[in-house]
Amino acid sequence: MSSKRLKKVVSTTFLAGAGACFLFGTGVTVGDVALRAVASKNIPGAIELTSLSIGLGALLSMPVCYAKRTHVTAKLLSEISPNRFTYPLGLVGAIASTLFAILLLWIVGENALEKIGSPETTADLGLPIPVLIAIIALALAACFAAALAGLRYAFINERDW
């Protein structure tokens, strides 16, 4: 499989996972509201399910944004003089993204290591906190790898402006 094809598959997989999480969270919310209106009952743990699924969806979409460098940017100086500012500011942005990604990974990774073996669970569903934090740490590791790919892309491709 070619490198370009592999990138496309990985990117699509992350985005599909994020979309599934968002749809699940939306479905739980709509189902909970409908069930309350129709049967005066609610879905147990609906708020927790929605929060966890929407949060995971956001985390799964982050690596794609880092790798493709499609995060929110302000192009004030590069619009005035693209030849002068696009490359250096693109590098600064890519470096800042990489530093931010490694900082998030470090903080959450340290927390995940501290929680190993902890009996803590979530309030409503009783999901194990160490497992949830480990999933977050893995998603942030993917973000860091993607930020490095975005930094590499900035060094190689933005010179061509």
Tell me what you see in this structure.
- The model has no long low-confidence stretch (mean pLDDT 92).
- The chain is built from 5 helices and no strands.
- Helix 4 packs antiparallel against helix 5.
- The chain is an all-alpha fold and 161 residues long.
Summed up, the helix count is 5
* Overall strand count: 0
Mean pLDDT: 92
Order of helices and strands: HHHHH
Structural class category: mainly alpha
Low-pLDDT windows of residues: none
* Coarse shape: globular
Question: Largest sheet, described in full?
Answer: none
Please give the alpha-carbon distance between the first and last residues.
30 Å
* Percentage of residues in strands: under 5%
Q: What is the share of helical residues? A: over 70%
Radius of gyration: 20 Å
Condensed summary:
The chain is 80% helix and 0% strand.
How would you describe this structure in keywords?
161 residues; mainly alpha; 80% helix; globular
Strand-helix topology:
Layout: H1 3-39, H2 46-68, H3 76-80, H4 82-115, H5 129-157
